[in-house]
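Input/output pair, single chain:
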Amino acid sequence: MSYAASFILDSETHEAIDIDRSKGDFTFPERNKFDAGRGLTAKTIDYICDVKQDPQWLRDFRHKALKVFCDKPLPTHWASKDLASINFDEIRYYLSDGEKPKRSWDEVPDDIKRTFDRLGIPQQERAFLAGVEAQYDSEAAYSNVKEELTKQGVIFVNSTEGLHQHEEVFRPWFGKVIPTADNKFAALNSAVFSGGSFIYIPKGVKLKQPLQAYFRINSENFGQFERTLIIADEGAELMYMEGCTAPKFETATLHSAVVELVALKGARIQYVTVQNWSSNVFNLVTKRGLAMEDAEVRWIDCNIGSRLTIKYPGVIMKGRRARGEVISIALANTGQHQDTGAKMIHAADETTSNIVSKSISVGRGRATYRGQVHIPKHLKGCKNNTECDALLINANSRTDTYPAITVKGNRHFTQHEASVSQVSADMLFYLMQRGLNQGQAMSLAVNGFINDLVREFPMEYSVELKRLIDLEMEGSVG
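Output:
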């Protein structure tokens, strides 16, 4: 089955909800030793390779990816008008102070330390994290993992260290889950990637505390292109969390990451994202997991910031009884388009996938769910559940739903549910009669809509989500 649905409220025009992003809206003077300049050419690739001391095979890989990027046109569907406004010749593709990642927080340069102090990173590390990586523009500024995990064979480093120090583990899976030619922006990342995490969890090791990465853009006209590869060996388990912020500039900022997850037999990976980019950021991300026999890959995803987000986390269920899940929340305010969804590819018998998506459209914001589920004819015993629910706040709010569910054969189970609702004046009146002001009433209604999904996030992230949605609700309904 395949169909599309679009909804635009026709009621009286209302003010937009103002979501506070001031927590990340600050910047420090640039302190770069290495700057590849503006624009993308073969010389840019060679500059990055020279600075990072890439081996020859990686230099060749990058140059081939550059050709793929140049040959592929921009996508002509979804947000093509917004994408056409990106000037790739004005982007700066590599900025670094030339320092290696610090293992002690005290050794981090003062301005970078103040950045992450303001974002609460060291406190979170001390409180509940097993390891942290903090990336500042193109490179990691801080990377640390608890000593007991290192003794168990856990590897948690940035992608450059992974390539140089653990090539025998890194290289066999690098670019295998997401090929260079997958899409134009995957090719761009493959050409200029820098930073990101490399994680390897040995057989049978189950992390009780999460690992976290935090990606920070500080510079104007900048492109951040982290590359993350996570491998959970047989029976291993981990939760990985990432957060993202950037200051608001008048010019466009580009964020184009590639994330590859590999869950071997019986392994379990949970990948949690709270994305709160400022409104000038184009967030164009490719994320995909590979789940082997009895393995599980679970994406828990929240998109609040950015001018445009295009992101469809996916799972290829390659082994029998593999499981894939995407739990997502998107909030689109005026001037924003959240084009998000999920891809589930069933490639073995008795595989199970679950997609639960909730979106909130505010003011003139637009939220789009775009999903793909594919179950081939030769398989048997596969199951899929897809749920897409949207909440419209204002007169010109818009939501679109494009679920493409292809099921061949007659030995499978699949179900799809979608709903669109509006915060009613009666509901707000009822809440305000019980002592809440208008903003508090709207906040309660919106948080109630997503509450069942927020519970899926770790406590520290769920509190942050509610805080972001809570603020400045006054005037949202006339």
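The two ends are 39 Å apart (CA to CA). Confidence is low (pLDDT under 50) at residues 1-30, 125-129, 471-478.
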